[in-house]
């Protein structure tokens, strides 16, 4: 009986120590995944966008992520077409490299969608033949 009482704490100690090592390993894997992930950020140089965005945007959850991705694809295609077509001038100074297959995250897709809305509002242009609102 005394022998069993001595073996029990030793076994519990060994089990407790071995489970701690597994938890530490999981923490390291999670840290590596976070460090290896690519994060995207939308940088807008137009000073009026920040205030317009704060007053005109709808919450992220207002539409689905696929809604924002689909509309961004439409807007980017039209924008890049106008950049390469000599008939259009301002504000089409640069091409936008947007890959619809890439996952930029909800934040970037949401903000890019509203940047296109800002450009339509500021320059009184229509980038799509139909309205997304």
* Domain unit count: 2
Count of DSSP H/I helices: 4
Uncertain segments: 18-34
Separation, N- and C-terminal Cα atoms? 77 Å
Structural class, please?
Answer: mainly alpha
- What is the H-and-E element order? HHHH
Give the fraction of residues assigned to helices: 55-70%
Largest sheet: none
Total number of β-strand segments? 0
How much is the average pLDDT? Answer: 78
**Percent range for β-strand residues:** under 5%
Shape: globular
The whole-angstrom Rg is: 26 Å
Overview of the structural elements:
By secondary structure, the chain is mainly alpha-helical. It folds into two domains: about 1-35; about 45-125, no CATH class. The chain contains four helices and no strands. It has helices at about 1-35, 45-55, 65-85, 105-125. The longest helix is centred in the N-terminal third of the chain and has 35 residues, at about 1-35. Residues about 20-35 have low confidence and may be disordered.
């Amino acid at each position: 009986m005394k022998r069993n009482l001595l073996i029990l704490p030793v076994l519990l100690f060994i089990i407790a120590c071995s489970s701690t090592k597994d938890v530490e390993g999981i923490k390291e894997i999670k840290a590596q995944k976070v460090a290896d992930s690519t994060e995207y950020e939308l940088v807008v140089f137009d000073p009026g966008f920040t205030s317009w965005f704060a007053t005109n945007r709808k919450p992220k959850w207002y539409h689905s992520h696929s809604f924002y991705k689909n509309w961004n694809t439409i807007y980017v295609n039209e924008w890049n077409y106008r950049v390469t077509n000599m008939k259009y001038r301002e504000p089409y100074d640069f091409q936008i490299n947007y890959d619809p297959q890439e996952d930029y995250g909800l934040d970037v897709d949401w903000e890019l969608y509203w940047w296109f809305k800002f450009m339509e509002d500021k320059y009184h242009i229509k980038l799509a033949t139909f309205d997304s609102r």
